[in-house]
Design goal:
Length: 556
Amino acid sequence: MASDIEIARAASMKPIQEIGERLNIPDEALLPYGRTKAKVSADYINGLGERENGKLILVTAINPTPAGEGKTTTTVGLGDGLNKIGKNAMICLREPSLGPCFGMKGGAAGGGYAQVVPMEDINLHFTGDFHAITSAHNLLSALIENHIYWGNELGIDQRRVTWRRVLDMNDRALRSIVCSLGGVANGFPREGGFDITVASEIMAILCLATDLEDLQKRLGDIIVAYRRDRTPIYARDIEADGAMTVLLKEALQPNLVQTLENNPAFIHGGPFANIAHGCNSVVATQTALKLADYVVTEAGFGADLGAEKFFDIKCRKAGLSPDAVVIVATIKALKMNGGIAKDDLGTENVDAVVKGCANLGRHIENVKQFGVPAVVAINHFTADTEAEVQAVKDYCAELGVDAILATHWANGSAGTEELAKRVSELAESGAAQFAPLYEDSLSLFEKIETIAKRIYRADEVLADKSVRDQLKRWEADGFGDLPVCMAKTQYSFSTDPQLRGAPTGHSLPVREVRLSAGAGFIVAICGEIMTMPGLPRVPSANHIRLDDNGQIEGLF
């Protein structure tokens, strides 16, 4: 079969106005970026408020492995499948980051015959949203330094400047730096560092804001530093929120593109699924729900991180109520969770599949805790055997959940018709009784404990007195009703990335807590979390180039 980029390049894309027409979006409400992508204007979106919402479907997955799960590919395939069976459906995805594209992934727009296009544009600069977020973030950094340089009227303690800089690229050399070297004219030297743009609080804010007014308020709520008496300095204190909002004015508007089968898709925002909530923007999701009868969206990493945050942060804050969940699993990943090495995944091993299903079963149980019905999508690979697939179906049947083989990578929407029919049945059944995992009124530490014990199956949460005291101080300062955003490895229910399957009897160590006051959540850092990734020994960038015809090669 042709490579992803070859398939994407051969696609017969329609003008973006025709895609908008499918959704009854008038031409004047589209802000085109070329022929095949456009932003939807804020004025038009503001006029959709009285329309009834469509059905919301979340696509999540088992814990990721090097074998791959294909969550985005399944999201696209399901959206196409719903349209194929006569439903008015659209897709909502996150925007890819340049860091992973040039690092390990080489692209993040789906795969095979289940892709969003124009694939090259989406994976690279797209409509400039990430550049706008990077600029707004670093403008705030510059204004902090400038305020200190010109007398520090607010009394910022330079040892307690918490706002780091960002760059949308994997560059380990920038994780920790010393800035303002070179003499008096360059300011006061201090330690600093860079995170990747998707880890910026501004990215999380953009994806949770409902309009420009809400965006500016949230930007102003960002805590950038503390005084010597530990009182906070906010972005609005240094009058940064207005200019930052100006830089983000266009970026807040969702981006409309299409699938290979010319079905509509919003691709907007892309917060880290570890340090933030890992979902596309609230604006895009809410707009899609007004425009389509079915909206298929995804959440980052496995359900223990992505789905939990989708439910407990995004849905809670945006008033969303999902109607069905699709849990993606692959035979290869299940075998890895069953203890099989990556090099041995091509050999049939039903026992390993059954053993690895414990990870899938845990995610099914967790999703049920939120009151939303689920179906399992077995993302098909050519090496999968009938016996292995049947083992997954039998296991899921014992849990009262259907497991459906999906061949969208090779067959497009024809490979997801059965899945689409089952998803539409679940969404229309009225079975969903969604509720977040915990109440706002719980203490911050109790919220952390609830997630650790009910989702990760940890026996206890370990936290130093300093962490517990910090949480109590935030509660006293009025932040106690915020949800918590758990930052841990995506590879395991525990904080040990090597502990696959469905471990129990482990402890959850909370190393640090951070307040994202603008985004509106508390981040609990569990174990080692990297907010500025590094490149692998052989990065994808080594293979990305222009061919003799000026076309991009190497994205996949």
